[in-house]
From TrEMBL:
Acidic residues composition-biased segments: 369-383
InterPro entries: SEC_C_motif
Protein name per the record: SEC-C domain-containing protein
Compositional bias (Basic and acidic residues): 384-401
Region annotation Disordered: where it falls in the sequence: 369-401
Domain of life: Bacteria
Amino acid sequence: MSISRNDLCMCGSGEKYKKCCMKNNVVSLDNIRDFELNRLQFELLDFATYQHDEFIDDLVDEFLDDEYLDDDEEEILVVYLIMWVIFTVQYDGKQTIMEQFINLKKKENKLRTSTMKQLESWVDTAPSYSIVTKIIDDLHLEIEDVFSNEKKTVKLLEKDEMIEEGGSLLGLLLPYGNYEMYFTMYLDFEANETPGLVSEIRQGFAEADLENGKDFMRSVFPGLILAIFGAELGEESNIEQLEWDNPKYEEVADLYRQHVEEEDLPKQFQDLGVMFWYKFCTKEKPVFRKPEIYAAALHYFIDRNISFLEFYTQGDIAELHRVSVGSLSKAYRQLENGLEDELDHFREYMEQDELDFDDVTFEDIFAEDDFDDEDGIDEDDPDRNDFFSEDKESPFNRKRK
C-alpha cells in the first residue's frame, strides 16, 4: 500500500502526510491499518449508495413516509438510515450490503491479510447506545454499552468538544483491533439528557421479545432515530402537555384521534383538530353529556375547513360516530361560531406564499397567550412545539424490514 505526500496522514492527526509522519519516516502498523479501514468505510458507503441506490431509497422512503422534518434534519437522518440498512437488511433476502462488500473485496484480493480480517469482523455490526465513562485523551474514550455493560475504547477521527463524561453516544461501532471507531458519524447526548434516554431504551428492551441488545437495536434503530430527530425521545409535544378543564373535553379529543387514526390520515390532522378543540373549550366552556357528538362535530369541522380535505358529508361523519345528523349539525355550528377568529387566522396564514404546511407551529395559528402557564404549557418546555412532531411512542413501534 502506498501513500501520497498530500494524502491525510495515517496517524489520524488530520494533517497531510508530508507535514506529519513523513518528517520522521515513522508510521505504526496500527496507523496503516486505521488508514486502510477508514478508506474502506467510505468505499462501503459509496458501494451501498451507488450499487443499491433504488433498494435503499425504497427502504428510506418507507420509514420517512408521513414524517415532518426540516431539510437539515432529514439529510442527517437519511444517512443514519442508510448506515442501518447496510448492516441489517438483507438484499433480495440473501445477503446484507456489508456481506456483499466483503465478498467483493475478497475477489479483488488487494487488501493486506490483517486488514481483510478486520473488515470481516464488521459483518456483525449493530447500532449501539453507550454511556461515556471516561475521556482518555482528545481522541480516545471509554464507553459502556447500556445493555451488556461491556466497556470498550473508542477512537475518534478528531477531537469532539461536545462529548462529556456521563453523556452518551449512538451509532454503529466498527472493530479496529484494540479499539473501535464509529461508522461515518455518531450522535452525542449531554449528561443531563442521558438518564432519561437510558431509561426509555431499557424499558423498550424489557418489553421486547428479543434475547440481546444487538437484536433490539437492529429492530428499533429506524424508529429511535426518527423519534430523536422528530420529537426528541423523552420529551412531550405541546399536544401531550395540554391540561383540560373538564375530563369530558379530553374524552372528545381522544375520540376524535381514534377516528382519524382509523382513517390513516397524517398525524398533523389529529393535532390540528385537538388544538382547535382545546381553544374552543378554553373560550366557550361547553357543557354536554355525549362526547361523541362533539367528536363528530370536530371531525366534520376539520374535514370541511381544511381546503384540501372534504372527504365526507355530514351524514357520513354522523354515521361514523353513531350520532344523529341534527345533533352533529348543532355542535358544528357552535364550533364554527366559537372558532371564527382562529379559523380566519389559520386561513390567512396558510395563504402565505411558499409556506410549507409541514413547518406550521401552534404559535403560527393561535395567539401567544394560548401557551402560557395558565393554559397548561410551561414556558420552559422544550423548543419542539410543531404539531407535526413524531409520536413519543415511536421508538418501539416500527417493525424491522
